Known about the structure:
By secondary structure, the protein is an alpha/beta fold. It has a domain at 13-66. It has five helices and three strands. It has helices spanning 3-6, 22-33, 45-57, 72-77, 80-87, and strands at 13-17, 37-42, 61-66. A three-stranded parallel β-sheet has the order 1-2-3, covered by helices on one side.
Amino acid sequence: MSSLDLFSLKGRTAVVIGGTGELCGAMAEGFASAGAHVILVGRDPAKADARLAKIKAAGGSGEFLSTRPISLSSATASSPSTARSTSSSTAPASTPLRPSSRSMKPSSTAS
């Protein structure tokens, strides 16, 4: 068994958010070269066409799913419960979320 067989993605679908960009586009090409059908999710159809042409020229398959960005205000306006939970926050909307300080490792001591 070759390493390519070990990491084969034949019969799988890879959805790549930001697949029209440089980094995620390169990852999409890698998934396609491993046999996955790739769905590029992005905003620019011209960039998607260029990336899909490279994928197809290398023997892969893929398609493009166009998206558009939304603002936080339009997202919270459609969900009253979300609007309540975000309005009580003390951090501005542009502040990134930080990971929890709790460890996800299981306890080494038995109870």
